[in-house]
Structures are given as C-alpha cells and as structure tokens.
Amino acid sequence: MRNPKVNIYKATAAFLVILAAVFYYYEEIKVPETNIETAEVIVPVRDIPENTVIEKEMLSIEKRYAEDVMKTSDIATSYDEIVGKRTIVPVYKGELINKKRIIENKNYMNSKDQTQIALALNEVDKALLLQEGDYIDIWLEPISHDQEAIINPHKIIEKIKIIDVHDSNYSRTKTADNITTAPDTLVPAYITIELRDEVIKGIYEIDKSKYNIRITRYGEEKLYNTVRNIIEGGGD
User: Fold this and answer.
1) Segments in the chain below pLDDT 50
2) Pairing mode, strands 154-161 and 135-142
3) For labelling, which of 23, 81, 163, 219 has a CA lying 20 to 30 Å from the CA of 131?
4) Which of 126, 194, 185, 132 has its CA nearest to residue 160?
5) Domain contains 4
6) DSSP string of 145-179?
7) Residues 6+ apart with CB under 8 A from 44
8) 9 within some domain
C-alpha cells in the first residue's frame, strides 16, 4: 500500500516546479507588450472624383499607425484642413488625404464658364518637360492600330495655357523662392489648365480603354509622326 504522504509530497513538488516555470516565463521569456502609437487622420468614406468640393459627410476620422502617417508629409488630420476645398485629382475611399492634392475652392471655380482641372500626362508626353505658362494642344489618340485606320489622331483643343505643373507626387515645380526646379530633378506628371465646363465634361466622357489623351506644345504638329513611330515600333 502506497504511503499517501509520499503522494502529497510528489504532487506538491510538481506544483512548485510548474509554478516556478510560470514565474520564469513571465519574468524572463515573455516579450513585454508595447503600446503602438496611433494618430487620427481624415479619410474619405467613398471615392471622391477630381474637381469636387469636399463636404464633411464625405469624410470620417480614423486611427492609423503614427509611424505610417509620419512617413507621408502633408497628410490631413482635421476636417478644417479639407472641408470646403476642391479635389484636383481623384481621392479614393479609405486612403490618407494628401493636402497637395486639394486646393482652395475659389469663386471662379464655381462659375459655369471656366473651371480648373488637373490633367495627368501620358508617359511619353512627360518628356516635353512642360512648365507653367506654356501653351499646349490636346489630342485624342486611338490606342489600337485598327482604330487608327478608322480614326486618326486628331486635335480636340488648341492653344490652352498651363496654369500649374506638378510631379508624380503632386509637388509643385517651383520652390518657395519661386525658382523653377531643374528638369533633371523633376518630371512633370500633371498639368493644371482652365476649360469651359462642357469641354471638361467631354474630356471626362472619353473612353480611356480606346483612346489616349496626348499633349503637344502649341503649334508643333509632330504628334502624327510620334504616334505612328510608337505604334509601329519605329525610330526615335
């Protein structure tokens, strides 16, 4: 017959070993929990098209990792920074709103006569290194070779003045001292122009799956040859 006292001693010893292991885990092994710092930011609750006046109902406040927010400059963190302002390019649901992509909503922008819009440049047309004050022509270019046989590239808008130029990060091409950034350090990706509302509507209605919007400097009739060389894989 087993001695019950021996069993009690064994159980007690086992319990103490387990207890010691638990204490050791929490004191020596377990990684201490860290508080991850967050920051409040403003994000759209739905996609907001370009050239749209932002209303508070379009936005919400969310918490994001502060480190991620700090990595991107000019992020909106309060309603006052963006409500009532106008988008220059589309702003998408849930994304951080970069204040460089919105502008003050001036009275003339609400006019039915003229409105400013930002136009994304075709990759090829970025090589023009356009600047504020340049005059341009806007062309419609069929994407496929078959389409070109039916509709040749043709000019849809002539002699429009560029109001502003931004790079792919939507940074301005001029410094605080109004000195133009050297072309080798900045490639224009967006141009701001002013058009009648009905013309803007026509641009927005262009089927981007069939046509490219192309830019040339005003009066330089080189797009036909350029487009043909690209399609045919021709020369420079």
Assistant:
1) 175-184, 227-228, 230-236
2) antiparallel
3) 81
4) 194
5) no
6) HHHHHHS--EEEEEEEE--EEE-TT--BSB-TT-P
7) 58, 59, 60, 91, 92, 93, 94, 95, 97
8) no
CA 119, CA 235: separation in Å to the nearest integer?
A: 28
Predicted TM-score (pTM) of this structure? 0.47
Same domain membership, residue 100 and residue 128: no
- How far is 158 from 168, CA to CA, in rounded Å? 25
* 125 SS3 class: helix
State how far the Cα of 91 lies from the Cα of 55, in Å rounded to an integer: 13
pLDDT at 236: 44
pLDDT on residue 174: 52
Please report the pLDDT score of residue 181 as a whole number.
Answer: 47
As a dihedral over the C-alpha atoms of residue 212, residue 199, residue 169, residue 99, rounded to 10 degrees, the angle is -150
* Predicted pLDDT at 214: 92
What is the residue range of 79's domain? Answer: 34-105
Among residues 105, 132, 167, the one where a domain terminates is 105
User: Do residues 206 and 113 share a domain?
Assistant: yes
CATH number, domain of 43, equals: 3.90.1210.10
Cβ–Cβ < 8 Å for 82, 53: no
